[in-house]
Amino acid sequence: MVPILQLYADDALGLVPFPSGRDLLQVLWCPLEHDGRWVIPEVHWRDAKEVESICEAPPAPTEARFGRIPKPCVVHPELVTEYPSWDLDDALWDVLEPRFEQVEAETGWDYQSHLSTAPGTKLGGYPGWCQGPQWPDCSGCGKPMDHLLTVESTEADAASWLAWTPIEDRGIEYEHADLRLGDMGGVYLFECRTCPGRPYKDCFDGS
Q1: Which of 48, 68, 79, 190 could cross-link to 24 by cystine, CB 3.0-4.6 Å?
Q2: Total tally of structural domains belonging to the chain
Q3: Are 191 and 146 in contact (CB under 8 A)?
């Protein structure tokens, strides 16, 4: 297993509710292929006070395909407001489309690329689908699961970079995490916040 995300509740900005008595979220995945799956994720909710000795990270498996092991980096959480893109109801899309077209004509901002779903790795919000939505249902209660985490190959593309980059960060050249998931796609984690143990599922798509 290789580490993907470690986040404390104080840094989560209220984007997802942490389980009672847990203030640390850790996400790992196996970067080796299993029956055609890109990665096998694991989600762990922990009490930081119970973490005693810090183990050294084991060496990453050498047989993992390129782009499955992220380069270590620091998370700088930022709260943003986003709106559904591929998840927007078709009937509502038909109602709003004239307004989308008007905004684009007046400003050059495209709703899907610039104004709806934030790109990159993120907690909560809407998945950054490359293809059509694949929201899973909980195997226990049968209800649609909540989006927990999106891990994408890049933080932004040429279309979305300008719209979602903070003004103070524009012009800065960033290092990416060296991920290549499928054809520059993403891995999406969902959880059920009703069933005991917060069961989770993952899915992925490529561009």
Answers
A1: 48
A2: 2
A3: yes
Could you report the per-residue pLDDT of 20-29, keeping only the tens digit for each?
999 999 999 9
Name 50's Cβ contacts closer than 8 Å, sequence gap at least 6. none
Residue 159's pLDDT is 67
Alpha helices by DSSP H, the chain: 90-107, 161-164
Specify the pLDDT at position 205: 87
- Of 116, 140, 165, the residue that ends a domain is 116
Q: What is the pLDDT of residues 92-129, one digit of tens each?
A: 999 999 999 999 999 999 998 899 998 889 999 999 88
User: The domain containing residue 150 runs over which residues?
Assistant: 2-49+57-82+117-205
Q: Are residues 61 and 121 in the same domain?
A: yes
Q: In one letter, which amino acid is 185?
A: G
DSSP 79-93: ------STTS-HHHH
In the DSSP assignment, the letter for residue 50 is G
pTM: predicted TM-score of the whole model, two decimal places: 0.91
End-to-end CA distance of the chain: 25
The DSSP secondary-structure symbol of 100 reads H
